[in-house]
Write a structure and sequence with these properties.
The chain is built from 14 helices and two strands. Strands 1-2 form a two-stranded antiparallel sheet. It is a multi-pass membrane protein.
Length: 299
């Protein structure tokens, strides 16, 4: 009986494991192999060991790479505060079951099902300095020269806000599911003891939402470190303006396949970036999951 059950487990897990090997493990191993060779365009040459990693961490790549990594970290912080903070607030509002709750729940989640490329192009059009409707409203309100995508000081923040608009429905539903899973007896007992709504939210609801926070934090971390589609669509492969929206994934793409301003490619250094990305995502997710799950138990 035990052997038969294990056999069924293998049968059901095999397709997922096969997909993981093909689309995750094998590309990671291949990228590590590519990073250990020198390349001329897309032609592999001699074995150079860790030379591509040394090049990445020295002139002329180091400053661009560290700046791109900084942008990824800022994106993670910004999305945690804006996207997930707003998602928690919306989830709490929906948990209170306002009128037309089903309508609001569908409306909040609707942007998530839209193509990220379509969302990027639409918001780029909305923020166009000449014909964008948001730009025109800003000008009518007295804000002259409103062009956040062209301002290095605001471009990254603008992308973070657009990304938050697109994804906020996902943490909202995750938090809402977590709130609905908490027994009402806990809330009633706290209110009978004289707890205010803020105390119920802070001391009962938030600790019991720890599993939902674990899921959201890990997924936000992975998405922020691998951030590519939206910056590529809205700011271009060079992370315009002036590299203010550059990310590690954009730098990888630029070095591997070239850009309008860079006709040449450097596959070896690009592969080194992909290996570092894989390590950061893998190690960071593992450590974060272990720590957050331990916190769940402590709470």
């Amino acid at each position: 009986m035990r052997l038969e059950r294990n056999l069924w487990l293998v049968i059901f897990l095999a397709p997922a494991l096969l997909l993981m090997v093909i689309f995750t493990l094998w590309p990671a191993v291949a990228a590590l192999g590519y990073s250990l060779y020198s390349w001329t365009s897309f032609n592999r040459e001699e074995f150079v060991g860790l030379e591509n990693f040394r090049k990445l961490l020295s002139f002329p790549f180091r400053d661009d790479f560290l700046e791109a990594m900084r942008h990824n970290v800022l994106a993670f912080i910004g999305l945690m505060v804006i996207q997930n903070g707003l998602g928690l607030a919306l989830a709490y509002a929906l948990w209170k079951q306002p009128p037309l709750m089903r309508f609001f729940r569908a409306t909040v989640f609707l942007p998530v099902i839209l193509s990220l490329v379509v969302v990027g192009f639409l918001w780029k059009l909305f923020l166009d300095p000449l014909i964008g409707p948001i730009t025109k409203l800003a000008n009518m309100s007295g804000i002259a020269s409103f062009a956040p995508l062209g301002d290095p000081a605001w471009a990254l923040f603008t992308l973070i806000c657009v990304n938050a608009w697109r994804w906020v429905g996902f943490p909202t539903l995750v938090f809402l599911a977590g709130m609905n899973a908490i027994p009402d007896d806990y809330y009633e007992a706290a209110r009978l003891d004289g707890a205010t709504e803020w105390q119920v939210f802070r001391q009962i609801m938030l600790p019991l939402l720890a599993p939902a926070f674990t899921t959201i934090i890990i997924l936000t971390f992975i998405g922020s470190i691998e951030w590519f589609e939206l910056p590529y669509v809205m700011a271009g492969v060079s992370g315009n303006p002036g590299g203010a929206t550059d990310t590690m994934a954009l730098m990888f793409y630029r070095l591997a396949f070239g850009a309008a301003s860079e006709a040449t490619s450097n596959v070896g250094v690009a592969a080194a970036i992909s290996v570092i990305l894989f390590v950061i995502v893998g190690v960071g997710s593992a450590i974060g999951a272990l720590y957050l799950r331990r916190r769940e138990v402590e709470m």
